[in-house]
Amino acid sequence: MIYPIKNCRVTFDNQPILINQASINVNASLSANVLEGESLPRYFVPSNGLAGRVDFSYFITGRDFLKDYVSDSSRTIKCDFGGMYFQSGCLTSYSLSVQPNSPLLVNASIVFFDNLKGSFSPSYEYKQIKAPILNSSNCRVSGLNISGDLNFISELNYESSMDISPVYLDNESNIENCHGIAFGRQRSSMTIRYPFIHDDISVSGKHSYINFYARSSGGTLYDIFSVSGQLISKSIKYSNDAPISSELTIIQDSIIPAPVVSGFTPLSGEAGETFKITLTGSNLKTCSQVYYADAVSKHITKSDTEVWIYVPKVPLSGLFTVITQGGSATSSEYFAVTDAGIGSF
Amino acid sequence: MINFNDCDVIIKGTGLFAESASISQSNSLSRVDFMGYKNSELIPNGGVSTDIQISYKPVASSETVFSTISELKNFASGLSPIPVEIAGLECSGYITNFTLSANPNQVANASVSLICYHPIEGSISEKRGTVYYENDPMKFVHGWSTIINYNNTGFASTYAFDYSISFNYSPMYCLGEREPKSVILLGGQERISVVKDRNVNVDFIGTGQVAYIFNSSDNTAKLKEISAYNGNINPFITINFDQCAITESAINANVDDYLKVRIVAERNF
Predict the structure, then answer these.
(1) Whether pLDDT at A160 is above 90
(2) What global pTM score does this model have?
(3) Degrees (nearest 5) of the Cα angle B202, B112, B49?
(4) Residues of B with Cβ-Cβ distance to A128 under 8 angstroms
(5) What is the CB-side half-sphere exposure of residue B224 using CA atoms within 13 A?
(6) B-chain residues within 8 Å CB-CB of A151?
């Protein structure tokens, strides 16, 4: 039986994702032994464990949960690829490509060193797509130390990659599963193209940053892609079929810490009232959006450890989620909205 | 229901004697399919654009499209779209193509194509009644008063004349916007085609032969209104072909017809 892609459901950590292209590869690391005087190998011996890789591209429909793995690359990812699955994948590359009037498209790769288990099982549980795909026409860009108007960016690419390699021990009996994962250097960069050619590249570097705000057509901010670091390269393109443009690249030189939500007060309130909530945590100074029960809430960022949130008059309990340059964080407790009851007159 | 004679066709505030006019609007939705999902989606993958085409009979004294073209050829600074209105629908567009043809004993024909990157405004409606349309039939550009050879002597007569010019634009779409921030004119091409009864040799370079078409010192085609037949009125449409290259010479002989030679010259800018 031959199946179209609609019968192949792919999830990461049990979360659905709008993948339009994917491939999964598993390689055995075999070395050929060629004896002296012979041109073809007589036999092959394993030189390393199994290594697998999933390459895929998908459209962003809201907050991209996979982006959290960029800032916390040591987290493992489970993947179910049409019934075949692995348990200990690691995000090795993540790139966002943004073109004018186009959907936000992510290309990512996950490597895994455990066995690919299971077998292909076609899915017939057809589901409808409910979330709208984010489009670049609704997004915004801000930056520092970049000459020219950032409203004229015609192309933006965000890339992050991590060197990941398996660790095997001598005399390891189970060579099919590696002992551990070694994480190497992480590289993040942002490249923009726009029609200005002012910026100079300094031999000692020039600190800059660019933020890309992924928003819906209604203006809701879902995510921020940030690179803060050194302006490292500039190229100017001359072509007879396009205006003169330059391409600037900023490479990350410091980690933007992910936000942490430790708690909030008060913990509950009566329906029909507007509440001011004090949310506490860390790495909150770049907070640009707060959600309550999946709806945007007005907020004031007071400090790196405190955010004031104004919960509207909705009779609905919910969680708080903050979005910063370093990512997003959600409260572990619900804000409880209680019914005032009919006893009080 | 609005009849054709109740429709305004206006460019830069001037009414045109249009024989046909069309507005075609399209977006850039593309289909995407997703692994494991039943439905497909049509998602935007580009901007919205509107193509406008008008064919009309040019009036020499009020021909506004040609004056705009002359400015475009010189890459005049501050490229701006020109306002167009057809049957109450208004938009501003950039000229992509213009043609002008003159044949013996016939009123000249012109056509213009534009592309608009901004939304169409207004709604279909009848004539406003406030737009001026030339009502003197002697004002139309005519083959009687089209002069290709200045002295009308020497190198052959001209039996047909066709002129076309096209422009290439690059709309600059940017993140955060649905319409282009700016439109850049990259260049264009001019083309003249004449029918004569004497041929020219097309050489390797193609230059230096344009004088064979015009047999004059100014290499121009002059198109006047009917009333200028006697040659006493200054031309209103003058097309200069200095530095053109002859690219084609085709000789045709048919039964019941005289031998014709079509000569084509082109120029890029």
Answers:
(1) yes
(2) 0.79
(3) 115
(4) 37-39
(5) 17
(6) 174, 176-177, 181
Higher-pLDDT residue of A305, B134 = A305
Provide the ipTM.
Answer: 0.76
Residue type, B41: E
Alpha-carbon dihedral of residues B216, B222, B225, B230, nearest 10 degrees?
-10
pLDDT tens digits, B35-84: 888 878 889 999 999 999 999 999 888 888 988 888 888 776 668 899 99
State whether A100 and B33 contact (CB < 8 Å): no
B22, B54, B264, B57: which is closest to B162 by C-alpha? Answer: B264
3-state class of A267 per DSSP? coil
Q: Which tokens is B174 given?
A: 């940017």
Nearest to A6 among B36, B170, B187 (CB): B36
Question: Within the 22-61 window of chain B, which residues sit less than 8 Å (CB to CB) from chain A?
Answer: 28, 32-39, 41, 43-47
- Note the pLDDT tens digit of each residue in B218-251: 677 777 777 766 665 666 788 887 778 888 889 9
Question: Which DSSP state fits B69?
Answer: H
Are A141 and A176 in contact by the 8 Å Cβ rule? The answer is: no
Q: Say if residue A191's pLDDT is above 90.
A: yes
Give the ranges where chain A is alpha helix by DSSP (H): 68-71
Across A183-210, average pLDDT: 81
Those residues whose C-beta lies under 8 Å from the C-beta of residue A343, and which sit 6 or more positions away, are none
CA–CA separation, A106 vs A69, rounded Å?
14
